[in-house]
Amino acid sequence: MGTGDWDCDLAIVGAGPAGMAAALYAASQGLAVTLINGGELLGYGLHGAYKSKGMYELAKDRLIALKMGRGYDPSGPDVRFDEIHDQLTTGTATLTEITLGYLKQMKVQVINGMGRFIDAHTLKVNGQRIRAPHFLIATGSRPRVLPGMEVDGKLIMTSDHVVDVDESFRSLTVIGAGVIGCEFASIFTAFGVHVTLLDTADRLLSHEDPDISAFITTVFTRNGVHVRFGARTRSVSIVGGRVKTMLEDGSTIISDRALVAIGRIACSDTLNLSVMGIEPGRGGVIYVNDNMQTSVPHIYAVGDVGERKTPLDLALVHIAEAEGRLAVKHMLKQPSTLRSSHIPFIIFSMPMLAGAGLTETLAREQYGAVRVAKFLNARNHRYHAMRAFDGYVKLIVGPPGDDRILGVRAVGAQADSVIGEAAVMIDNEIPYTYLLDSIHAHPSLTESLQNAARIIAGRLVPTL
Q1: Element housing 62 (H / E)
Q2: CA distance 123 to 271
Q3: CA–CA separation, 195 vs 181, rounded Å?
Q4: Whole-angstrom distance, CA of residue 114 vs CA of residue 14
Q5: How would you class 33 by CB atoms within 10 Å of its CB: exposed for 0-12, middle for 13-18, buried for 19 or more?
Q6: Alpha-carbon gap, residue 132 to 31, rounded angstroms
Q7: Strand order from edge to edge, sheet including 122-125
Q8: Long-range Cβ contacts of 57-65 (<8 Å, 24+ apart)
Q9: What is the C-alpha separation between 403 and 399, in angstroms, rounded?
Q10: Cis peptide, bond prior to residue 400, ω within 30 of zero
Q11: DSSP-assigned states of every residue in 220-281
C-alpha cells in the first residue's frame, strides 16, 4: 500500500480476537497498523471466553471429585468464589501482558479510546484524526437484554458479569438455554448452586439432533439442573434483595441471582456508520461479502459485528480470527477463502458437546441416505480409565458411493479431543475410509472416531 498522506496502512477498530488476529497478520506482512481499543484487550474472547472456561475447568474438577468419591474436593466444602475470581483475574492479566508483548514485537500501534468515523477515510479517536486507505471494524458484540430490564451486574447479570462473581449464593435462574445458558447452568450446578434453566424451545440446543438434545437433558437433570421448556419470560426484577422472574404462563421463580443469556447484539452504534452510507442490519450487524467487505469496499467488518450471508457464519472466536486474517489477505490481494462447512465448535457444558460439519438431520435433508454410526464412550479404554462412561462419538458420512465425512458429533468428557482430526478431514474431503487402518495412539479418545468408521465399514458391530 502506498504511504501517501496516510497515518497508517490499516486502522483497526476493536482489539478483540478478530481485530487482534488481523493486526498481527497485517504487521507480519509489513503493513503499518494502528489498533484502536475501546475496551478490554481481546474483548469477550479473553474476558468472557477465557474466564468462563476457567470456571468450567474448576467446576468440572469439583463435580468429578464429588461423583467419584476420591475424598478430594478442589473447592472445599464451600465454593470459594472470591478465590476463583482472583485466579481468573490473575490469568487474564497474564494473558493480557503476553498479548501486549506480541503487539510490541510486531510494532502495532495501540490507541486506547473509542473510534468514530468522520468520513470514509478518517477516524477520530480522543480528538486525534487517523487517516488510512483501509479500515477494519472488529468491535464485537454485547449481551442483549429484555426491554425495560434493569441489569445491575450483581443480582441480575449478563455473561459479562457472571464471570466476575466473587461471592457465594444458593440459587440462580438462567434465562435462555442457548450455548451460554447451558454452559453456565452446568458450571454453577457443579459449584453446588440450585439452577433453574429456562428454555423457550421444547428441547435443549434445538439446532442439534434430537438424540444429542435428549442425552444432554438427561445428564443435566441427573446433575441437578432444573430445566423448564417452553418457558417465556415476562419480566425480571429485584424484590427484597432477591430476583423475581415472572413467566408468560403466570408462574414465578424466586432466586438469589439471575443470568440473562438471550443472545448478543453487535457493537456498531457508536461508529457513525451513516456518514459513509453503511446501514447496520438487525441486531446492529454490518453486512459483508465473502471477502468481509462492507458496502464501502475499503472498509471491512469481521467477527461478531460483521455478518456474511451464510447460516454457517457463527459467532466463535476462531471464526472471528479467521475472518480477520481473510480480510487482510484480501486487502493485500493474497488468495484466500474461508470454507465454513467444516468449522469445529465446542460447547463447554457438562456433558461437553463438540462437533464439526453437518448434523445428522441436515445431512439427511441434503444428501439423503447418509450412513451414521455411534461408538459409545463406555467401550473406549481411555474413557474407562477416566471413569467417564456417558456419551458417544457419532460419525456421519455420505450415502453409499460417497465416502466423505459430512459431520461428527462427540458428547461426553473431553469430547473436544476428537473434533480437530475430523474437521481437517471434512475440510479436505478426505474419505472416512482413511480412518479404518490408520494407527491411533492407545488408549486415546480419538480411537472412538476410528471405531465409528469401522462400524460404518461393517468391521465392528454397532453399539446403539
Answers
A1: helix 51-68
A2: 9
A3: 11
A4: 9
A5: buried
A6: 11
A7: 115-119, 122-125, 128-131
A8: 58/84, 58/87, 59/186, 59/187, 59/188, 59/190, 59/191, 59/350, 60/190, 60/350, 62/190, 62/191, 63/190, 63/223, 63/350
A9: 7
A10: no
A11: HHHHT-EEEET--EEEEEEETTEEEEEETTS-EEEESEEEE-S-EEES-TTS-GGGGT----
Q: With H, G, I as helix, E, B as strand and everything else as coil, classify residue 347.
A: strand
Closest CA to 252 of 276, 235, 271: 235
Determine phi and psi for 264, rounding to 5 degrees.
-135, 155
For residues 24 and 108, what is the distance between their CA atoms, to the nearest angstrom?
Answer: 8
Residue corresponding to grid cell 481485530: 19
The string of DSSP letters for 292-314 reads -B-SSTTEEE-GGGEE-SSTT--
Which one, of 424, 322, 301, 290, lies nearest residue 25 by Cα? 322
CB 137 within 8 A of CB 300: yes
What gap in Å lies between CA 359 and CA 343, rounded to an integer? 12
Bridge partner list, 316? none
Q: Residues 156-213: pLDDT tens digits?
A: 999 999 999 999 999 999 999 999 999 999 999 999 999 999 999 999 999 999 999 9
Three cell numbers at 151? Answer: 441489569
SS3 34: strand
pLDDT tens-digit readout, 256-303 = 999 999 999 999 999 999 999 999 998 899 999 999 999 999 999 999
If one counts every other C-beta atom within 10 angstroms of the C-beta of residue 397, the result is 25
